Please model this.
Amino acid sequence: MPAWLRDYRRAWLAGDLTAGLIVTVMLIPQSLAYAMLAGLPPQVGLYASILPLVAYAALGSSMTLAVGPVAVVSLMTASALQPLAQSGSAEYATMAMQLALISGGMLLAFGALRLGFLAYFLSHPVISGFITGSAILIAIGQLSHILGVRAPGSGVLEKLSALLAALPQTQWPTLVIGMATLAFLLLARSAMAPLLVRAGVPDATAAVLAKLAPMLAVVVSTAIVGYGGLDRTAGIAVVGEVPRGLPQLSLALPDAPMLELLWLPALLIALVGFVESVSVAQSLALKRQQRIVPNRELLGLGVANVASALSGGYPVTGGFARSVVNFAAGAHTPLAGVVSALLMSLVIAGLTGLFFHLPHAVLAATIIVAVMGLVDLDSLRRAWRYDRADAFSLLGTALGVVLLGVEAGILTG
Model:
């Protein structure tokens, strides 16, 4: 039994239940959006938001880390699999599960070998540059959904060229709903919390409510498109039918040729996910004088990825934004994650029909606003003042990711 469960206090229950509910409201649009970013059907993002949360709660050391689909790992999944299979196909989904399984197995092996100390030796400028470059790459990739056009291309230059060529075919109703969502989310990020504070809402509550703006955008836009039939009359692309029901448990073991194709991207996903999770977990733990055990984090993230593979998901890790909301909403233990998993199960079991008219442009706007916060110019300024070599490694990694691709970029760094 985990230590947090053995020593659980009744006074923590209200905070854990509240945080679990709030994180679920935030997790629903993110799961759908990040699955789309990974090139997977939307329900796969929901599948990856159930068992991994429970698995991490059993072995992880952080009391407030929120595990699940995240933007950078979703991009790495797409980058690894799109050259190998057609996005959205059954073969692609199977390979995503295998990628999670291999990544989880590597993390478990690292944890068993007590290699958690390696997190302290990985270069911060390289990781920061990688995440910054990935954020730029993700944002550019979502512009086609905002414009309502097709813009194929593997590299950023090809994609930008395709976007320029497709501008005359811009789908104006899609552009309007996408830009309106972008404007609302940006305004909510900068102004909603101060407005709520002026209205008498406590600072912490206002900050949490501001983070729930994407869910409000999803609800309003889905209602507008569904009520007006804009998917039929105006041609707005929507999510469509999302299968109802909990995922079937299965184990898709990779054969030797597939293992040869997937081991390197799985290793990079494992390392980047581990460093990102530990960084978030450490920063939150310090605020409560708690301690993070890197070897336990390796085991927790490893078993979370294996659980995701078993339940039809794809690679997962700890998310920054959700973890901050989880912390601010009053989570005391990983029970908050278990509550989120139970609520997500209810959503998948009976409420997926509500997502039919959800516009792709709204999910794209949600992704763009989420990744804008990952562009880390402060680290570049600090590195430039402290050590130019660090600054150049950060810039080189970011440019490598943008111009050469995810794997080449991080290996260059």
